[in-house]
Amino acid sequence: MAIKLEMLRVFQTVAEQGALSLAAAKLGRTPSAVSMMLSQLEDHIGDRLFETDRKNRLTPLGRLILEESRRANDAFIRSLDAIERHATSVAGTIRIAAVPSATVTLLPRVVARFRQDHPDVRLDISDVDSASVRRRIQFDEADIGIISAPVGDQPEGQVILSDHMGIICHKDGPIARHCADDTCPDWDVLQLEPFIANSLCALVDHPFVQDQLVKGTLAAQNTTALLAFVRAGIGATILPKTALISDPDIRFIVPHGQSFQRHLIKIQSPDRKLSPVAQRFMDQLGRDAAP
Length: 291
Fold this sequence. Notes:
By secondary structure, this protein is an alpha/beta fold. Helix content is 43%, strand content 18%. The chain folds into 3 domains: 5-87, Arc Repressor Mutant, subunit A (Orthogonal Bundle), CATH 1.10.10.10; 90-159 and 267-287, Periplasmic binding protein-like II (D-Maltodextrin-Binding Protein, domain 2, 3-Layer(aba) Sandwich); 162-262, Periplasmic binding protein-like II (D-Maltodextrin-Binding Protein, domain 2, 3-Layer(aba) Sandwich), CATH 3.40.190. Strands 1, 2, 3, 4, 5, 6, 7 and 8 form an 8-stranded mixed β-sheet that branches. The protein is elongated, with a radius of gyration of 27 Å. The termini are far apart. The mean pLDDT is 87.
């Protein structure tokens, strides 16, 4: 008899519960039915999985098979979730992981337009850095991702917009007073104020900025928090222009001596097909990226 997934599920439940009766109650089966399935599994493997008949202590082989059972059952559950999401794609859930600057400025506009045609679809949106977005896509914890990347890099998905990186500072702070208009000679003006680091600063290949990413004493990743810190006069930071919501107390200054740009890129897993409704959101994300 071949090993079946249900055998592994029963074995995992018994191993985790530590008793046949507890496992049977959780599985909704009789203890004798659970015991018979365990015996079939052991007969196929050719060795015992438990040290005693009480099923409260695994053999070394049992511990190994428990780990494999968990992996197999977890993969099966993820597959079922994916099937159910496709089956309910007319009014299902779309999981979106995006960098904070996209959730603040881009997604509100796209979501508002999407919900006009799809009011029953649940949108589950989280804001994390680009590395975390990639991980969530890889491990099927998100359907659609939006990441930041430097202009010039080979994009791993589809570019939906590009914008300039610049200095975000308070309108009455030292940097703003030093710069007569919305430009300045160089990124070195950041030395005039305390620096607030964030992950997007890595896109600016300037010695002072890169040094502050390592040695700086203040960092924040949430765009709303960064703007609040600048508004409070705590210091200055670097963000793309589209991340700046109109605010009379904040200025956006572009150093003209060395310009840096970033892409916003939409990504999805190459191994999983989007549900029809998620594909519609993906398509609209490209169309409606521009204001």
